[in-house]
Every structure is written in C-alpha cells, then in structure tokens.
Amino acid sequence: MKTKKKIRRVRVKYCGITNKSDLKEAVNYGVDALGFILWPGSKRSIDIYRLIILSNKVPVFVSRVGIFFNQSYDFISCCVPYLDILQFHGGETSNFCNLFNKPWIKALRMYNKIDILMESEIYSKASGLLLDTYSTDVPGGTGKIFDWYKIKPNIKNNIILAGGLNHFNVNKAINIVLPFGVDVAKGIELSEGIKDTYKMNAFAVAVNQANNI
Length: 213
Description:
The protein has one domain: Aldolase class I (TIM Barrel). The relative contact order is 0.17. By secondary structure, the chain is α/β, with parallel strands linked by helices. Helix 4 links the parallel strand 4 (85-88) and strand 5 (104-110). The chain has helices at residues 20-28, 48-55, 73-79, 94-97, 116-122, 170-177, 197-212; strands at residues 11-15, 33-37, 63-68, 85-88, 104-110, 128-133, 159-161, 181-184, 189-191, 194-195.
C-alpha cells in the first residue's frame, strides 16, 4: 500500500471537560481545544453556569468548543459569549449553524449508507466535519470505532476523527485517515466526566509520535 504524505500537524481536542483540574491537565498536555458538552442528555454535560466558570480558566490559543444537540437558538445564543467554536450533533441545518457568527463543526454519525461527500456539500460552510461512530442510543461519545477506510480522501472539509480513540489506536487512526484533528472523550476517562491523567498524557504522546513520523 502506498504511504500517504502528511502535510500538517494533527490537532487534538479533549472533550467532555467538567472540572477545573481536568481542564488544567489537558492544557498542560498541549491540547488545541477543549470540548464542553451543553446537552443535558449526556453524562458529561455541564450547565451554562459551569461553562462560564470553566471558560474563564481556558488560556489564550486554546479553543473553547461548545457541543449541542438539537437545542434552541436562545439557549445556544446564551452560551456563545463563552465559546470560540460551536459543534452540532443533531439535525441542525447549515443555515441554523450559521446563525451565531462563530466557526462551527458538524458531527456526522457513520452509519452504513451515509454519503460523506454529499454531507460535506450540505455542510460546506462548516469549519470541520466530525466523524463519529453511529449508535441508536446516543448522538456521540460511544467509545467505539468505525471503519476508518470509509473516509474518502477527496472530502474538502477539515476532518476531525472521533469514536473510540485512545492512546493505543490513535497513531494508527491518524496514519489511515490523515485527519485535521482528533477528538477524544471516553478514551481518556477514569469514569464518565472525570479524566484520567495517565491516559490524557499517553494520548498526547501518541499523537505527537504520529505527527513526527
């Protein structure tokens, strides 16, 4: 198999941050972005009051990403001042995602018949497409991988790879997909919503190793 050529550093987002301690450790390990889940159906969710507290602890050059799932314009608008990027996991239209004057990411769940090229055209104004494992139970954060070879190399959007990543498999995933970024939640956790210091560090090391190949 012909080796693909890497042309840029893969960015890292640690998602499901719920407390100051995990936030500080994630920043120490050099993440590019922190994900705050604002959908109450998630066990990793925080409310807007916690968002305000945590967002004020995020240093410059680290992006604050808010994760939403079919939530109201009014609620999202209240969160926007404390975020740099919005991430949509529901049935939000491209027009809806554009309403907030912020860069945004559209999450796509990788079910068998998904047409990624068509979706990339529909969400062409997105700053990135986050590809996650399909599950009938939850809209994201499944902790399970999908077939990385299904991702087409000619997608114009920045691809953010999610779904079951951890420090054991992220190097391989990067070499197959060559994504713009990788997104991890469960793979660096001690329990739901609580991060594991060792796993956070090991994940960062694995990504750095993939970047240096």
